[in-house]
Write a structure and sequence with these properties.
The complex is a heterodimer of chains A (about 250) and B (about 240). Chain A is globular. Chain A has 11 helices and no strands. Chain A is mainly alpha-helical. Chain B has about 240 residues and is of the alpha/beta class. Chain B folds into 2 domains: about 120 residues, 3-Layer(aba) Sandwich (Rossmann fold), CATH 3.40.50.300; about 60 residues. Helix content of chain B is about 35%, strand content about 25%. The N and C termini of chain B lie far apart (about 50 Å). The chains are: A mainly alpha (about 250), B alpha/beta (about 240). At the A-B interface, helix 7, helix 8 and helix 11 of A face strand 5 of B.
């Protein structure tokens, strides 16, 4: 029943929004050339899919997000873990992590172009910057809430330092971390679209800008719909991860 | 008898706040010592000192061999199954074959074999404490420290857990220190019951209990001791004067 509601209701609201859009453009409420009509968008969606151009752009974007996000997640969580166990290290780096986290990744665009040129590397760099500081911060924050009793137990067991970090701190914060990863993935996906506006010839962000240059607003909407749809899929993916048994203990308690 | 655990003139405190002052305590091999006292009297601090988690500000703590502590709030790793929790607690030197044997033996002893692959959050409070017991005892350390291990359980489960602890320790003795505020528990389990005084913590009175275990709180000797302990703690009924 709830599954039906969670699938059918969103579809219904989508239909209503589509209907309103359709009506508005059919009745000529939008000034000419500002908003494409649903049939126009549908036609160019079919066209883009048939020519496999859309798929190519999608793959380009997902490729950049995957690399940037994974690199940022692994190093960000690793760095956060290392820092988290030492109050001195925490005090030394925490304000700076916050400093860099508040910098919009887009502010790094000039450096990204200067250091990495055009193509994939600057976009991957920007996504890395958006992911690393966010996850380092959430890792440190989560690690400070791990109950001391686990560390006492670990010390009685004589676990070596490395194993305490990877076998106690890390699993203890995983339920928290999955949530942070979910948010960070959403941000990374937003950033890639912006980052690709400096890309040479591929990516959904590039498609938006390129279509605009050709005044192909229907194509802009096709790109936007695709971006949104992939965003939802990424989020669903992380929602699935939260249901894994060894993660769930933190959710269900 | 040689002392396995010894505190010699041990003091501990925070600047301006003495918690423990000049305390002496000696626990013999295989002995079960119970510490009772008002809450906040530093019982848990004492266990921390005995377990080596807290360093004394002065005096000496001597412990022969390793210890394992069971905590009231539970120290099981919630991301590991019952079996994995017990395995993680075994010494590094145990080879995989005998580790597997030990684990299944303890799963049998604590009647958890059917729940070997369950996660702690899927178990009841009593079962979780049985896992704690299995994990702590499977490691075969010399010393077992218990910090109000059953106080989060309901009355019946608590009573049953006490019996299980007695039975388990009878067949596999350990030098044990139990901290509790439950006087029934103290007289049922202890070879010696130490009544502690408020901060700075000191031993107010020692009760030696020679009756064989298992005993019930109403066993002759235990009942009298319970009454004397309550008197010592000021918990006996006296008419309220107006």
């Amino acid at each position: 029943m709830s599954r039906l509601r969670n699938v059918l209701l969103p579809l219904l609201t989508g239909q209503v929004m589509l209907l309103l859009w359709w009506l508005a453009s059919a009745l000529g409420w939008f000034p000419v050339g500002t908003v494409p009509s649903p049939p126009e968008v549908a036609a160019s969606l079919v066209e883009e899919l048939r020519s496999s151009r859309l798929i190519t752009h999608m793959i380009a974007s997902l490729y950049r997000v995957s690399w940037g996000f994974c690199a940022g997640a692994v190093t960000g969580v690793g760095f956060g873990l290392l820092v988290s166990r030492s109050p001195v290290a925490r005090a030394a780096v925490l304000p700076w992590i916050n400093f860099f986290r508040s910098l919009s990744p887009i502010a790094w665009v000039p450096f990204a172009i200067l250091w990495f040129g055009l193509g994939d590397p600057p976009a991957i760099f920007l996504i890395f910057m958006s992911t690393f500081f966010q996850l380092a911060l959430s890792t440190i924050a989560a690690a400070t809430t791990v109950p001391q009793v686990y560390y006492r137990v670990a010390s009685e067991m004589g676990l070596p330092r490395r194993e305490v970090l990877l076998g106690v701190t890390l699993p203890a914060i995983v339920p928290n971390l999955v949530l942070s990863l979910r948010v960070a993935a959403g941000v990374a996906w937003m950033v890639v679209v912006a980052a690709e506006m400096i890309a040479r010839d591929s990516g959904l962000g590039f498609l938006v800008l390129d279509a605009r240059s050709g005044l192909r607003m229907d194509l802009v909407v096709v790109a936007m719909v695709t971006i949104g749809a992939i965003g939802i899929c990424l989020d669903l993916l992380f929602a699935r991860v939260m249901m894994i048994q060894s993660v769930r203990w933190g959710v269900e308690r | 008898m040689t002392a396995v655990l010894e505190l010699a003139d041990v003091s501990f405190g925070y600047p301006g706040v003495p918690v423990v002052e000049g305390l002496d305590l000696s626990v013999a091999a295989g002995e079960l010592v119970v510490l009772v006292g008002p809450s906040g009297c530093g019982k848990s601090t004492l266990l921390g000192l005995l377990g080596g988690h807290i360093a004394p500000t002065s005096g000496a703590v001597r412990r022969r061999g390793q210890s394992r502590t069971i905590y009231q709030q539970g120290g099981l790793f919630p991301w590991l199954t019952v079996r994995q929790n017990i395995a993680r607690g075994l010494p590094r030197t145990v080879d995989p074959a005998s580790a597997a044997r030990k684990i299944s033996e303890w799963l049998e002893v604590t009647r958890l074999a059917d729940f070997a692959n369950a996660y702690p959050h899927q178990l009841s409070g009593g079962m979780r404490q049985r896992v704690e017991l299995a994990r702590a005892l499977a490691a075969e350390t010399d010393v077992l420290l218990l910090d109000e291990p059953f106080s989060a359980l309901d009355y019946q489960t608590r009573a049953r857990m006490r019996q299980e602890l007695i039975a388990t320790l009878a067949s596999r003795p350990r030098t044990t220190v139990l901290v509790t505020h439950d006087i029934e528990e103290a007289v049922q389990l202890g070879d010696r019951v130490l009544v502690l005084a408020d901060r700075p913590t000191k031993v107010r009175r020692v009760f030696e209990l020679r009756m064989p275990r298992p005993r019930s709180p109403t066993t002759p000797g235990a009942a009298e001791a319970a009454h004397a302990i309550m008197e010592e703690l000021g918990l006996t009924c006296s008419p309220i004067e107006d």
